[in-house]
Amino acid sequence: METPANDNTATPAQQALDVLAENAEDTGALDTLAGSDVLVPVPDDVSDEDATDPSAVALPVLEQPGGVPVVPVFTSELEMSELLPFISRYRLVPLGALASQWPADDLSLTIDASSPHGLTLTSEGVRTLLGTRA
């Protein structure tokens, strides 16, 4: 179900994603998104010590059809549970800070992948659209 941009239950990040679905160049929405915290799933095979290390964030990498690697992040626990119901731990990370340290390789970022307002950015898009706004 699509959340209208003026819906009071939508987070600012979800509202920004709705705006970007209509206009990918909206600088206000990009700024809001870059300033938002996102949930980064912590895989079960990561130790508790590594999962809570403030100096490092282990990026969960999934493979999209065609073999393209993608890191899923989410704007809420509900969005995360819809796509990855088996994930029980996550880190709350500022999206802009994550983007400013994004690897240079061909790793995409997908935000709320299972929702109508989901957004996927290439590695270059993450660094240029979000990383410069941090």
Task: Tell me the name of the CATH class.
Answer: Alpha Beta
- DSSP helix count? 6
Q: Name the overall outline.
A: globular
Mean pLDDT score, rounded? 83
- Our Rg estimate from Cα atoms comes to 14 Å
**Could you tell me how far the N terminus lies from the C terminus, measured between alpha carbons in angstroms?**
30 Å
Order of helices and strands: HHEHEEHEHEEH
Residue fraction in strands: 15-25%
Strand order of the largest sheet: 2-3-5-6
- Structural class determined from secondary elements: alpha+beta
Taking pLDDT < 50 over at least 5 consecutive residues as the criterion, the unreliable ranges are: 1-6
Short structural summary:
The chain has helices spanning 12-22, 27-34, 48-51, 77-83, 95-100, 123-130, and strands at 37-42, 62-63, 69-73, 89-94, 108-111, 119-121.
Write up what this structure looks like.
The protein is of the alpha+beta class and 134 residues long. The chain has a single domain (37-133), classed as Trna Endonuclease, Chain: A, domain 1, CATH 3.40.1350. The chain is built from six helices and six strands; from the N terminus they run ααβαββαβαββα. It has helices at 12-22, 27-34, 48-51, 77-83, 95-100, 123-130; strands at residues 37-42, 62-63, 69-73, 89-94, 108-111, 119-121. The strands form two sheets. It has a four-stranded mixed sheet with strand order 2-3-5-6. A two-stranded antiparallel sheet has the order 1-4. Helix 1 (12-22) runs antiparallel to helix 2. The longest helix is centred in the N-terminal third of the chain and has 11 residues, at 12-22.
